[in-house]
Amino acid sequence: MLLLTLRGTPTIYYGDEIGLPQVLIPAESIRDPLEKNMPGIGVGRDGARTPMQWNCSAFAGFSSSEPWLPLSVDWATRNVETLRQDKNSIYVLYRRLIEARRHSLALRRGLYRPIPSKGDLLLYVREFGSERMLMALNLGATSATVGFWTGFKGAVFISTSSERDGDLIDETVRLDADEGLVIALAPEAELPSVSE
């Protein structure tokens, strides 16, 4: 969520959209020349270069024969075809954020305004003309309550789980661990000054 709501050009490396982890490569399968020349110190890049996991067919739909690097152990469930069907998957979240960015001038070209916050909370607004989007991100492992300022009004545009989309937000919102919200601010909603 952070990547697709900040200024600049977002860069998504293949596998990010399905949460593809760094894969542990057994010694006999190492291909990276640096790791082969200096084994055991973990300088190889093979774990980040494993085949894209497209579906749950043989070799994850990447190839009709065994690829030269192994798949992640959860390839049968962590693949594009499976995650495309789950409305709360990271794959669907990426698609929704890309679509939102495509249609929102605030997310594409808007100014960045940080909002002071404490602990593991990250708050900022992207604004372009009258369009304003507030990002409320809980980067922590426990839930947190965000107390907004007087006069705050908005609606959840995108949540990390689609279940909160459209919820109206006024002066407080509870965020679960690792949860993020993109909130479309109401036209009359005031923003705090940076000194608050």
Strand and helix layout:
Blueprint lengths: L1 H4 L27 H5 L42 H5 L5 H14 L1 H5 L1 E5 L5 E8 L2 E8 L5 E4 L6 E6 L8 E2 L2 E4 L4 E6 L11
Antiparallel strand pairs: 1-2, 2-3, 3-8, 4-7, 5-6, 5-8
Task: Walk me through what this model shows.
The chain has a six-stranded antiparallel sheet. A two-stranded antiparallel ribbon has the order 4-7. Helices cover 17% and strands 22% of the residues. It has helices at residues 2-5, 33-37, 80-84, 90-103, 105-109, and strands spanning 111-115, 121-128, 131-138, 144-147, 154-159, 168-169, 172-175, 180-185. The chain has five helices and eight strands; from the N terminus they run αααααββββββββ. It is an alpha+beta fold and 196 residues long.
* SSE pattern: HHHHHEEEEEEEE
User: Strands of the biggest beta sheet: in what spatial order?
Assistant: 1-2-3-8-5-6
| β-strand amount | 15-25%
**Unreliable stretches:** none
Please count the beta strands (DSSP E, at least 2 residues each).
8
Q: What quaternary form is this?
A: single chain
Find the structural class using helix and strand composition.
Answer: alpha+beta
Global morphology = elongated
Measured as a percent range, the helix fraction is 10-25%
Q: What is the CA–CA distance across the termini?
A: 25 Å
Largest sheet: 6 strands, antiparallel
**How many helices in DSSP terms?**
5
Our Rg estimate from Cα atoms comes to 20 Å
Mean pLDDT figure: 91
In summary, what is this structure?
By secondary structure, this protein is an alpha+beta fold. It has helices at residues 2-5, 33-37, 80-84, 90-103, 105-109; strands spanning 111-115, 121-128, 131-138, 144-147, 154-159, 168-169, 172-175, 180-185. The model has no long low-confidence stretch (mean pLDDT 91).
